[in-house]
Design a protein that fits this description.
Blueprint: E1 37-38, H1 41-49, E2 53-54, E3 60-62, E4 71-72, E5 75-82, E6 89-90, E7 97-98, E8 100-102, E9 105-111, E10 116-120, E11 123-124, E12 126-128, E13 133-141, H2 181-189, H3 194-209, E14 216-218, E15 223-235, E16 240-242, E17 246-252, E18 261-262, E19 267-273, E20 278-279, E21 284-290, E22 295-297, E23 301-307, E24 312-314, E25 317-323, E26 328-329, E27 335-337, E28 339-341, E29 346-347, E30 352-353, E31 366-368, E32 373-374, E33 379-380, E34 384-386, E35 391-392, E36 402-403, E37 409-413, E38 418-422, H4 425-429, H5 431-444, H6 461-483, H7 489-500, E39 513-514, E40 524-526, H8 529-555, H9 560-566, E41 575-578, E42 581-584, H10 585-596, H11 603-633, H12 640-669, H13 672-675, H14 681-687, H15 695-720
Parallel strand pairs: 2-5, 3-5, 4-8, 5-9, 8-10, 9-11, 9-12, 10-13, 11-13, 12-14, 13-15, 14-15, 15-16, 15-17, 16-18, 17-19, 18-20, 19-21, 20-22, 21-23, 22-24, 23-25, 24-26, 25-27, 25-28, 26-29, 27-30, 28-31, 30-33, 31-34, 32-35, 34-36, 35-37, 38-40
Antiparallel strand pairs: 1-3, 6-7, 37-38, 39-40, 41-42
Helix pairs in contact: 3-10, 5-12, 5-15, 6-7, 6-8, 8-11, 8-12, 8-15, 12-15
Amino acid sequence: MYRGSRNRSAGQPDRPDMGGSGWQGLDSQLADHERWLGLSDKQIGQLEAQGNRAEDWSKVLVSSRFDPSAVWHNLFLGHVTVGALDAQVLQSDGPQLKVGISYSTIADCIIGDNVAIHHCHYLARYKVDDKASLFDVGQAVTTSAPRFGNGIDPQTGNPAWLDVANEAGGRGVVAFDQMIPADAYIWARYRQDQRLQDRLLEITKAVYKSNGDCLGWIGQGCLVQNARILKNIRLGPYAVVDGADRLEELTVLSSQAEPTRIGTAVILVDGIVGLGCRVDRASQAHRFVLCNNCTLDHGACISHTVLGDNSTVECCEIRNSLIFPNHNQHHKSSFLIASCILGQSNIAAGATIGSNHNSRLNDGELLAGRGFWPGLCTSVRFPSRFASFVLLAPGQYKAEMDIPLPFCLVSLDCRADRLELLPAYWWLYNMYALVRNAWKYQQRDKRKTKTQYIETNYLAPDTIEQIRNARRMMEVWVGRAYLGQDKDTDELAATGRRILTNQMQTPAGLEVLADGLYKSRNKAKISRPFEAYHAYGQMLLYYAICTLLDHWQGHKINSIEQLTEGLSGRAEHIWVNLGGQLVPQSQVEELCQQIGAGRLNTWAEIHQQYERFLAEYPIAKARHAWTILCEHLGTDWPTSMQLERAIDQSIAIFQYVNEQVVVTRRKDLDDPFRKALYSNQQEMEAVLVRPEDDPVVQFTATQTGRALELARQFKQLIQGS
């Protein structure tokens, strides 16, 4: 161990000379050079008597409140600064650690006030902020060219690509510590716009240059204990690292309000961890971005993936994917590869959603809308695409799929080698699950820093437009089933519409088939098209009236004329799910043009545009709902009588939704096979939640009561106009 050199004049401590090559990168981190003092001979003598050694004591600088009695058995290498060390104990979730430094090797570090650093075998080139605790840390080092998980090499300027949504790398993005799913989506999906691609890379390089400090960082109030390797990391304030195996090239965002926790046997390499995240129990991630309030647990393994806010991933494997907020995947037997999932999704046990290389290269992809739910032991062949809220029944789907029908149940008829589709399944047969889906994601959103608005309502502009398109396709399919193949599409649609709206008699046993949905010689079968078509119609009216009632209530509109005048602008009919936030496609295209033209030069400016889109969303959504209502009524300008009739129809739908939530939940409890597990009704009710006590049922009843009252008041407004 070094005894070290004092290399200074005797007497009172001198102000240090902050110049010289030894302080390169360190003095840029010092907020106030005047704060630091050289050690006195008395302090050096006491430190050496307590088993401390230094390569050069003149390079060890301290605060005026430095207490050498709190420093024992350490080796100091290079330039080290140490703040105040008061006699106190730091409180934390783990052990209570006494303020001080002991049994550690510290090289070229800036150490704040009242830290607890004990048994840290090698701590090099880190800034440790006030009241941080490090206990039993094997190695914590920062190299000469750290990236801290950002995707630009500081020496060469070359990007380190994060290959989302496609294993072959054709949709790669470059990570940065403020990245959200919307950023990754724009970068990954609009590959045809080369100017946009070039500008996004330039903007990201500029972000890294503006954050090019060379020291690692342990933020204020952090706790790091029982960790083996920390290399090139920035750990935000109040983060907790307990038992991690290897953390390398990371930025871990954390705050006192939203602390991030990294636990036992975790390996994280080359990524960004968002606010309020939890990574625990042997989970691993490589080349990744975890957005705010995400959980990796029980050995989850992800790589080349952006995982959206409020997502929970356990046990399973996810690679090369772009996943929007509220994704759930809990089972060891499932994996998700080369996919773009637009949020509110759930991957069941045994589901194998992976690029199975059925093309010449590993370049297959899957794109699924909100609410995607592949069932148990589902295998999907790439490339495939799914509308929102598609439920895949268990099966081995041996051909590619393109399912444009939202809220649809897809199953496989193996004997006929064809798909069977039940459109509007959720609305018709599982209303409880549909309502719970929206309710639970609102309840689970624990973010205090909400970087982007997330639309969780299952009926929103994106799904409504899918419903409109689905009804049009069903009209054509029904018309073709009745007239045959050799007819004009408009004629087929008109005939199908008359059949589906009871304007002409439907032949018995009419089988409705659809082509282009499954890559098979046989066409897909559409089950119960009449019920599904009318269910879709109910959903359109329900959305339109609910949205207009909310708009009317929020804007204090006193007449129908005032309402219609405010909604008379052009309605958008093509919407983009931009990281969970719904945005008209025209605005997304405008955003891309502004970026490509150099009018937006930072990611902060781009994020401000997302805020602008959000501010404009309520009126854009209300205009969209008004257009849907007019289309439903078959007019461009509804009369008071037509509006009253629409309100009456919507009241019936409100009541239907409320009833079906109870009915579909009670169906579970009335199942005789479920009852067989309990000796009597009282035992079952003690174990299970009764429908009347279910929070989703109660939530629906409250919302229905509110909607009925608003509908009654709105009807009075119509009658008074």
